[in-house]
Design brief:
It is built from nine helices and six strands. The chain has helices at residues 22-28, 33-53, 73-89, 91-97, 112-124, 141-160, 165-170, 174-178, 226-237; strands at 14-18, 58-65, 100-104, 132-139, 191-194, 213-216. Bound molecules: 3-methylbut-3-enyl trihydrogen diphosphate (2 copies) and magnesium ion. One 3-methylbut-3-enyl trihydrogen diphosphate is lined by residues 18-20, 62-65, 67-68, 198, 200, 202.
């Protein structure tokens, strides 16, 4: 019998990308790490365009983690500058493609001018109905869950008084936490892509990614082209998402 691969899934509605390998890409070429970040930015633009053309609804880009502050001050400030450059240079692109930019992460922990540019872009694009690009900046999955719990507690205090909080926490449900995450209306990522061959989440979308399909690419992020996105999506379509149940073709 001919071995025809099963196509089980529709295209993913939400893709998250851990854009990794900028530093190694630069090192491989005898360049400084910042040069890798510059090329990584170009790759982010290419892949955003490709995802928008494919009709992907949500694209979350892991841009700067809560752990990335461990890097040198020079590298961190270069990345912050690149984020600002990305926001400014992409506004026309966003307008043309009706891309809405949103944020995930503890934005208050960023330098003021970066916060200002991020908030400006969010506001400039908020009516656009095309793909939503979620920039995860100063983002950590654990931090997001902690902040969600704080918001939950604050909300309960405000509505019912602090004495009810213990009771509420005793009865907390998963939905209560989901409701206070950074973007509760956005569906969980169907597919999480990681470039540069590391087999770990590095604190990306810990809650939302519980049942995401993972795709690891050996290519460094600056080398990513639209064909790589097509390959990842084609691979995703062959996956059998069981969510703890049985295989779709189980007897
Ligand atoms: C990803 O590339 C970019 C950020 C984490 C900001 P890296 O800078 O982590 O590149 P490698 O992993 O050192 O190659
Ligand atoms: C994850 O990459 C963070 C981003 C891509 C923004 P890292 O390079 O920081 O992850 P580790 O250190 O390899 O786990
Ligand atoms: Mg890395």
């Amino acid at each position: 019998m001919e071995n025809i691969p099963r196509v089980l899934q529709d295209a993913p509605a939400h893709i998250g990308i851990i854009m990794d390998g900028n530093g190694r890409w630069a090192k491989q070429r005898g360049l400084v790490r910042t040069q890798g970040h510059l090329e990584g930015l170009k790759a982010a633009k290419r892949i955003t365009q490709a995802a928008s053309d494919l009709g992907i609804k949500y694209l979350t880009l892991y841009t700067f983690s809560t752990e990335n502050w461990k890097r040198t001050a020079e590298e961190v400030s270069f990345i912050m500058g690149l984020i600002r450059q990305y926001l400014r240079s992409e506004l026309d692109f966003s307008r043309r493609n009706k891309i809405r930019v949103r944020l995930a992460g503890d934005i208050n922990g960023l330098p003021e001018e970066v916060q200002k540019d991020l908030n400006q872009t969010v506001s400039d694009t908020k009516e656009f109905k095309g793909m939503q690009v979620i920039l995860a900046v100063n983002y950590g999955g654990r931090d997001e869950i902690v902040r969600a719990m704080r918001r939950f507690a604050y909300d309960k205090c405000a509505s019912g008084g602090c004495s009810t909080v213990c009771d509420t926490i005793n009865n907390i449900r998963e939905d209560d936490i989901s409701a206070f995450l950074d973007n509760p209306d956005i569906p969980d990522p169907d597919l999480i892509i990681r470039s540069a061959g590391e087999y770990r989440t590095s604190n990306f979308l810990l809650w939302e990614g519980a049942y995401s399909e993972l795709y690891i690419s050996q290519k460094y992020w600056p080398d990513w082209e639209k064909e790589d996105l097509n390959t990842a999506i084609a691979e995703f379509k062959k996956r059998d998402r069981r969510y703890g149940g049985t295989a779709s073709d189980a007897a």
